[in-house]
Write a structure and sequence with these properties.
alpha+beta; 9-stranded mixed β-sheet; 4-stranded antiparallel β-sheet; 13 strands; 28% helix
Length: 381
């Protein structure tokens, strides 16, 4: 009898550039638009009630020069602006649309602001405690760091987030995210086993700025599970309900089902705007249940460390970016979210950079400034 023929999954197989096919320039746009179904492991959540959005288009936004320019770029996918239940602006690329999930990459990190903030308010997490207090199994890369340092990207260890280096730790991390096939099929990393490998002789960050490491967020997810006695996926289910997600809140995971909190979420542009409104409402869901902490969100506007140039006017604070008025975050490949806590405006921009690195630090600057400027328009006059 002939053997059964097979091949490695082409979407998740590592190519000559040391990237999985879904993240190679020729396939990346398809990958970012379909990651919720291309990932090796994933899960999804639907909300019990949906936050309604009513078209109330604001012509001032459509007429802004940066809006016209940035939404006409070939790598543009989607842009949405809402305020409360009002849909103020919406535009999509021809190959995308309002019902299409898009991976949001590191915007996913903002979930931990809500979850940890709530656990702090409930007395279950002390930000001054060391990580080893909550995770005795963790390696030297985190054991001596405080939870607050992890929240602010204020930890020094051997995890590298250099997107120009295909052999940096951030890509090896993908094995524990369900985003690439394991280097050794007989010993596939889970998120926990991967995080335990991170080392440091001294976790003190002496750079004077945020030292960005995606692994920090997954450590926080592990802490949330340990202190709450609930799997991280149940916290995500709460957040989907609180945001009033219309479609699905999808997230990639490791083989054991631990969700990728650092970059694994995939949602529509409208649903990300609904999610961003949680920060405007200071962590209150559409049903008025708190999934975040109002006081923690307010403190996040003032804390943190400066980010590296060219974003050095923005601070990294409690798993968010902030300028003191808005909270937000960027995502690898071309995404950004801003929730203006003064005006109540939430702005979303999706795109897929198709250069070798899927990254250009200067590319984000006009996007951030555009979304921030929209938030400062007069909506009450």
């Amino acid at each position: 009898m002939r053997g059964i023929e097979s091949e490695t999954n082409p979407d998740l197989t590592i190519g000559a550039d040391s990237k999985a096919r879904w993240n190679q320039p020729d396939y990346r746009r398809h990958g970012f638009h379909n990651l919720h179904r291309l990932a090796r492991y994933s899960m999804g959540f639907r909300a019990a009630r949906v936050m309604l959005l009513h078209k109330s288009m604001d012509l001032r936004i459509a007429e802004m020069e940066p809006v016209r320019r940035l939404t006409s770029l070939p790598w543009f996918s989607a842009m949405v602006v809402i305020r409360g239940n009002d849909l103020l602006f919406e535009r999509y690329a021809p190959d995308f649309g309002p019902d299409r999930p898009h991976c949001i990459m590191s915007i996913s990190k903002t979930v931990m602001n809500l979850v940890i903030g709530r656990l702090v308010e409930d007395g279950k997490v002390n930000l001054s405690y060391k990580v080893a207090h909550y995770l005795p199994w963790v390696g030297s890369g985190y054991a001596a760091a405080t939870v607050q340092q992890v929240m602010n990207m204020d930890v020094a260890n051997d995890y590298s987030e250099d997107y120009s280096d295909p052999l940096s730790t951030t890509f090896a991390h993908e094995e524990a995210m369900g985003l690439r096939l394991p280097a050794d099929p007989a010993h596939e990393h889970t998120m926990r086993s991967f995080l335990a490998t991170i080392r440091s002789p001294d976790t003190t960050n002496r750079t004077g700025r945020a030292d960005y490491k995606s692994s920090n967020t997954d450590v926080l997810g592990m802490i949330a599970e340990a202190v709450s006695g609930r799997p991280m996926r149940s916290h995500l289910a709460d957040i989907a309900d609180a945001a009033g997600i219309e479609g699905g809140l999808y997230v990639t995971a490791d083989r054991e089902g631990f969700p990728t909190m650092d970059c694994g979420l995939c949602v529509t542009a409208r649903d990300l705007a609904r999610y961003g409104s949680l920060f405007v409402r200071r962590g209150a869901g559409i049903d008025h249940r708190q999934v975040g902490s109002a006081s923690f969100i307010e403190r996040s506007l003032q804390g943190g460390l400066p980010m590296g140039a060219p974003r050095d006017w923005v601070r990294y604070s409690n798993q968010t970016n902030t300028d003191g008025r808005w909270l937000g975050h960027g995502g690898y490949g071309g995404q950004y979210m801003i929730a203006d806590l003064a005006s109540g405006v939430v702005g979303i921009f999706f795109s897929v950079l198709e250069n070798k690195e899927a990254w250009d630090s200067n590319y984000y600057i006009p996007i951030i400034k555009m979304l921030a400027d929209i938030g400062q328009l007069d909506f009450d006059g």
